[in-house]
Design a protein that fits this description.
about 350 residues, seven-stranded mixed β-sheet, four-stranded parallel β-sheet
Length: about 350
């Protein structure tokens, strides 16, 4: 009798294991490759995607490359070997990442280029981001609206990131005509390696020295570079007297906006971006089409079907409504006493 009970128990355990294994196998397996977790916004992206993947019952496998293009290739190769069905790829280097898209395509894996467009690939894939030319337009329009005449510093993001070029392209639609009219003078115009705040600070220090501190505005492409530029301005007791743009609505930027040292940021709700990317990955894994509304972005080889979300300007006037009421940031974090 005992033998029969034990045999039944073993048979039940085996059956449960088979069912569990089948359930695991049925879960779509998604790979996610991120460039860094050193910036607040990329931490938020990861959290949003992990939460949405858990809600939808996906097997999400995450790799972070720490701004190393070769490492990203190796990590994605490993994800492909794990049998993922879809790869969400936020490239560190937009051009060299075309190798990753090619590897995935040869393995029959669909690719979503996340927030940063993979350049120069002839393969078919999707792109999801915000309208990044529009981001630059918002920054440039704001800067020109605040600085009617004077000297400005133009910072761009990493030269390996296509978004940096799009931001600058959009901003120059407003800055270019003001420069041509003679209202504005660009006294420094440089890309910032890997979006590093320390590099932005160094460039800003050079610009201040070269122009005897006669700088009236800074086109900073994101909040990290804005922070670096503001540190250089603070050292010259100029923080708050110079218009400085930004992007990403990071907590540090919101604090600076409240304190008056940063003039604006562009809010791209990475919660919405991350959720949408996971929804797209699930659709591709299930063989369903992606609705893009016919929008595309050219990657130097061909037009990539694109899902583009809408960015929004945040200033001191609407910060509470946009960032705090929405739950993106907490009031007690933003409104803290000055050190």
């Amino acid at each position: 009798m005992k033998r029969i009970i034990v045999s039944c128990a073993l048979a039940c355990m085996a059956a449960l294991a088979l069912v569990s294994g089948a359930a695991q196998a049925a879960r779509p397996k998604i790979g996610l490759s991120l460039p860094t977790q050193r910036e607040e916004r990329w931490v938020r992206d990861k959290q949003a995607m992990e939460a949405e993947a858990a809600r939808l019952g996906l097997d999400l496998r995450v790799q972070v490359t720490d701004n190393d293009a070769a490492r990203q290739v190796a990590q994605c190769e490993n994800l492909i070997a794990q049998g993922i069905q879809v790869l969400i790829l936020a490239p560190h280097d937009a051009s060299s990442a075309s190798v990753i898209v090619d590897m995935a395509a040869r393995a029959g894996i669909r690719v979503i280029s996340y927030d940063r467009l993979v350049m120069d690939s002839p393969r078919e894939y999707y792109y999801i981001s915000f309208d990044n030319v529009k981001v630059g337009e918002l920054q440039g329009e704001f800067l020109v609206g605040r600085v009617k005449k004077g000297n400005i510093v133009v910072l761009a993001g990493s030269p390996t990131d296509n978004n940096a070029k799009l931001f600058r392209e959009g901003a120059m639609k407003f800055i270019g005509p003001a420069v041509k009219k003679g209202d504005l003078k660009i006294v420094m115009d440089q890309f910032v390696k890997d979006w590093q705040p320390a590099e932005a600070q160094r460039i800003m220090e050079q610009a201040l020295t070269a122009n005897a501190n006669h700088v009236d505005g800074v086109l900073a492409p994101n909040d990290g570079t804005a922070g670096g530029a503001i540190q250089a301005l603070a050292a010259q007791h100029m923080a708050g007297r110079v218009t400085v743009t930004g992007q990403d609505a990071e907590l540090s930027a919101a604090i600076r906006i409240v304190q008056g040292t940063q003039s604006m940021t562009v809010f791209k709700d990475t919660r919405a971006l991350g959720r949408k990317a996971i929804e797209m990955a699930l659709a591709l894994a299930q063989g369903r089409p992606i609705a893009t509304g016919g929008r595309t972005v050219n990657n130097n080889k061909h037009a990539i079907p694109s899902v583009l979300l809408t960015p929004r300007v945040v200033t001191r006037e609407n910060l509470d409504a946009v960032l705090i009421t929405s739950g993106y940031l907490r009031r007690e974090q933003v409104y803290r006493p000055k050190p």
